[in-house]
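SAMPLE LOG
Freezer: B-3
Tube label: C17
Construct: single chain, 201 aa
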Amino acid sequence: MSTNPLGRIRLVHSLTLVPVLVVTLLTLGLWVAPSSTAALPATSSVAAVSALPVLTSPMLSATEPIPESGAQLTAATWRIAIGQAVVDAGETKLGAPYSYSAGGPYAFDCSGFTRWAWLQLGLELPHNSGAQWAAVEPISLDELQPGDLLFNWGFGGGQPDHVGLYVGDGIMIHAPNSSGVVRYDSINWWTGATTRAGRVR
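STRUCTURE (predicted):
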């Protein structure tokens, strides 16, 4: 259900964060490569990464300076690349079983899944849907981008009862309940629940 434009990045997932995100930008067509990599075939992700300098850095937010990489990247473009890479990580766990309080890598509850997906990009969220809601910047559903979090209030309490990962096109990935597995659903999957969105910063 997702276009999943980052599938090739799985080939180089063991490399450092910045080269992987540059490959993401190349794949999405959001970055013009320097002359040293411009002639590489579009399918040669490993070759593209090998031509880049090896960089190591902690997780970068959209408000921090863009690393020197021979190209001008805007904060918005950097944010898109990060969000898409988080979605790509989450999609590798489709079909994994739900297990209460589990945080992966083989089973998940809802907040354990979203925490695990973001952790692959170096950012550690709390393992609790309410604590994750407190940690994100609330946004409107109209502002959703891949990698944002979706929260459901279904039982009338003050804290969200569920959290999932937005993929795009009105679709989310989540670990829904004890009878399910990590799967795609509409963002309106929980009939009668209040749904809100948040952006990881």
